[in-house]
Amino acid sequence: MTRTSDGEARSTKSRRGTVSVVLVRPLAMALVARGARAPALADFYGAADLTPEILADADARMSPAQLCVAWSEAQRLADDPHLALHLAETIPAGAFGIVEYICRSAPTLRAALTQWCRYLRLLDDAVLVGLVEEGALSALRVLVESEAPAPASHELCFALVVRHARAMLESPLALHVRRVAFTHDVPAAQRDAYRTFFGAPVRFRAPHTELVLETSDLDQPLRTADPSLLAILQPTAEEALSRGPATLPVTDQVRRTLRAAMQSDDAQLDAVAKRLGMTGRSLQRRLRDEGTVFQALRDELRRDLADRYVGQGMSFAEISFLLGFSEPSAFFRAFKRWTGLTPYERRASLAGA
């Protein structure tokens, strides 16, 4: 068990959960701001199995796998390996709703970070973050990672914490970032931008994902402290926490799991059921209750991905591999059955549209 900064003991096993679509809105807005056209935006929404209508719903949730895919697709479309750092400089204050406003209203930096760790679950209950104090240094640390990590989302989180903390303290120089660490890796040529942004050493492929500060910084007061607003917001946040984590329909959970497993034999009923913590028979029964069956979901996902990959100009051998077909000829037969066209014919029709 791990005791977090909010005083609650929690298991360090991997976590399943859901993510608020609020965390994806900055990605969509960034693509629009960078001049992304309708086809690119359609690719972004399609890859993550989202729609503009879903993103507009403040109560909508998605799986961690969707967040991971959304980040990957946004970085690809924006052609920006430092998208998280650039977003941190442009996302307006208040973009993360009640969680952010509670942190801004806290009396000290310590209180703000403690509140962030506690109420982050309203935005993402698939990860566990804690404020770990170790003598002269303290770390905002990812204690438990989700089953489908989105590395750039951690980069954005730490970048936003540093940006806003510097703005809310009496002086930007009052925040002493000692080091930043990520468990993921980036190419060596891209690392200088991180050191420049954080003003501290940044390590990749580290044992923990963490932002390390001087403990003495935590007791500094915030210029944005507002005890009256905090007293109004906290009961609302506590009530939301008491309702427990939101769950996705089993149909949606299967779609997300299949998307990650499509390239291997893991895209089989028993393997998907195991990843969702149930038996194959139980999964089939729950899917029937929602009006579908496993094979139909797999075929639907394969069909949608195949059409998108064909339109993107990928080689047919690569598409066959990505969709888990034993050989290209099997992919050709399936595509003709789904669409009435061969992949060649479909690509030609899209090129002439």
Please describe what this structure looks like.
With 353 residues, the chain is α+β, with helices and mostly antiparallel strands. Strands 5-6-9-7-8 form a 5-stranded mixed beta sheet. It has 17 helices and 9 strands. It has 2 domains: 2-242, no CATH class; 250-351, Arc Repressor Mutant, subunit A. 36% of the residues are buried.
Provide a brief overview of the structure.
The protein is an alpha+beta fold and 353 residues long.
List keywords for this structure.
353 residues; alpha+beta; Arc Repressor Mutant, subunit A; 2 domains; five-stranded mixed β-sheet; two-stranded antiparallel sheet; 17 helices; 9 strands; 10% strand
Q: Secondary-structure blueprint of this entry?
A:
Blueprint: E1 2-3, E2 9-10, E3 19-20, H1 25-33, H2 38-47, H3 52-56, E4 61-62, H4 64-78, H5 83-90, H6 97-105, H7 109-119, E5 128-134, E6 137-144, H8 151-168, E7 177-181, H9 192-198, E8 202-203, E9 210-214, H10 227-242, H11 250-261, H12 269-275, H13 280-289, H14 294-311, H15 316-322, H16 328-339, H17 343-351
Parallel strand pairs: 7-8
Antiparallel strand pairs: 1-2, 3-4, 5-6, 6-9, 7-9
Helix pairs in contact: 1-4, 2-4, 5-8, 6-7, 6-10, 11-14, 12-13
